[in-house]
């Protein structure tokens, strides 16, 4: 039996609050690979978009965060090429922007030993990496294109429970979010804020009314008297979430990019809640040979999912966004 990566106190705190902030979870140097991979990606896209006349300058002289912020202000679809999931669209898909990033650094991060150790402390040793995952690269709020102000990968993340985005097949899935800070997350640059104990309150009404926001949210009027705790963490730090915990992100009021990734895991064999997208066995103490260790195979599974959706071979819904809607509240 391995020693738990979380102390008894940390596990009790997670169970009590529905979240746990770990100021430093992985060595910040373990993020070098992601930073290099994303810098190369941005370089290639900047050259291409400039050649296509989509942006006025490739901004090659700028550091990564500023360069990303400048380019996405001119080309709002940019975020799709950096995300680690295909777009969450049930219809109206444009193949030109139905893309994602699936480089080896992302796969290596999903299998990071320290992350899986912590996950194992909470859900046990048979760990499935859920395809419900998002790369969130948030420029300073004042620079965000109005089309993206309500898009949680770039602009605001409003109050929600993570269950809101899952199909009903995953109602009993023990999904755990690992929200990892790739840049330090502070109150100023938009760290998360969470309502302690809210995971015991059952599912909340989430409004999908476009007049309020472009993503399902628990309306501010419902949350206005609730005390939320801000959860700043260092670069390489993490916040773990129960899927029923109510949380949001504060706005990025700083002058630089705030960058995080949310990874999700659940015990192998449970439904992901997003059957159009592929997951994989990240750790198995019982059957280690079932673990996926090859980043190119992982990338291939996403290519196949993309083909299946675009060709119509996959006919179900990709994403759940209206199930918890209730017009009386919304
Ligand atoms: O980083 C964000 O803005 C939101 C992340 C989040 O809400 C989540 O991981 O569930």
Question: What can you tell me about this protein's structure?
Answer:
It is built from seven helices and ten strands. By secondary structure, it is α+β, with helices and mostly antiparallel strands. α4 (104-110) crosses α7. 24% of the residues lie in helices and 17% in strands. The protein has a six-stranded antiparallel sheet with strand order 1-7-4-9-2-10. The model has no long low-confidence stretch (mean pLDDT 95). It has a domain at 12-28 and 107-311: Jelly Rolls, CATH 2.60.120.620. The radius of gyration is 19 Å and the shape is globular.
CATH architecture name of the domain at 12-28 and 107-311: Sandwich
Rg over alpha carbons: 19 Å
User: What percentage of amino acids are in beta strands?
Assistant: 15-25%
Q: Let me know the CATH homologous superfamily of the domain at 12-28 and 107-311.
A: q2cbj1_9rhob like domain
Topology, pairings included?
Layout: H1 8-17, E1 19-22, H2 32-51, H3 64-74, H4 104-110, H5 113-123, E2 126-138, E3 157-160, E4 176-181, E5 192-194, H6 220-223, E6 229-231, E7 238-242, E8 247-249, E9 258-267, E10 280-284, H7 295-311
Antiparallel strand pairs: 1-7, 2-9, 2-10, 3-8, 4-7, 4-9, 5-6, 5-8
Helix pairs in contact: 4-7
2-oxoglutaric acid binds next to β4, β8 and β9.
